[in-house]
């Protein structure tokens, strides 16, 4: 089943929501807020999705973090595999090391609690998963990806477990920040890091984001591909 990922109106976070943008993440108690492997700063929480009952990752959640405190030319988007991407076999070691300035946390939804110590940066908005794969919203969950360029779907992880499409965030999505949040660091025209003038953050410089997960739920891993028109 394909779902459209749609944000609803801004409101106060209660802690009962499982799919949402911004606010405070819900994580297992033994999962800390990740730090950037490049600058050491705490990463920014962008959004999380609790996979619905008709999804093959039902019962699991995915929380997405990225550093907004530094910008590095070599790490503006997730590292890509070398060679032909369509049908690629993705090494699990690669999936463990490519998360340098971002982090993808996968966990049992029922084990998560609101991270009260996290100082929110992105405005909280619940996410609604609407069946049918309509075009409105910020992305798609399940079904088949809608590629901007060519199909770059991986085939497997470690030549053992298949990798399947999890979700897609469309290009150009902006994440509104709360009034006192620091501005995102970006690379200017000269290539030097500087504060953005926008009251919003971009995930992977606003590229379209495609996430694939391992079919083996015992060790859930995520591979990201980005494309831009």
If you consult CATH, what is the topology?
A: Hypothetical protein YwqG fold
Low-pLDDT segments: none
* Gyration radius from CA atoms, angstroms: 17 Å
Query: How many angstroms does the end-to-end distance come to?
Result: 27 Å
Strand content: 25-35%
Biggest sheet details: 12 strands, mixed
- Indicate how many domains the architecture comprises: 1
Query: What is the CATH C-level name?
Result: Mainly Beta
Instruction: Name the helicity range.
Output: under 10%
Write down the overall geometry.
globular
The number of strands is 18
Contiguous helical run count: 1
Write a structural description:
It is a single chain. The chain is mainly beta and 229 residues long. The chain has a single domain (3-227), classed as Hypothetical protein YwqG fold (Roll). The protein contains one helix and 18 strands. It has one helix at residues 92-97; strands at residues 3-7, 20-21, 26-28, 44-50, 60-66, 89-90, 102-108, 112-114, 125-131, 139-141, 156-157, 161-169, 175-176, 185-187, 193-195, 200-201, 208-214, 222-227. The strands form four sheets. Strands 1, 2, 4, 5, 6, 7, 9, 10, 11, 12, 17 and 18 form a twelve-stranded mixed sheet that branches. Strand 11 and strand 12 form a beta hairpin. The chain is globular, with a radius of gyration of 17 Å. The two termini are 27 Å apart.
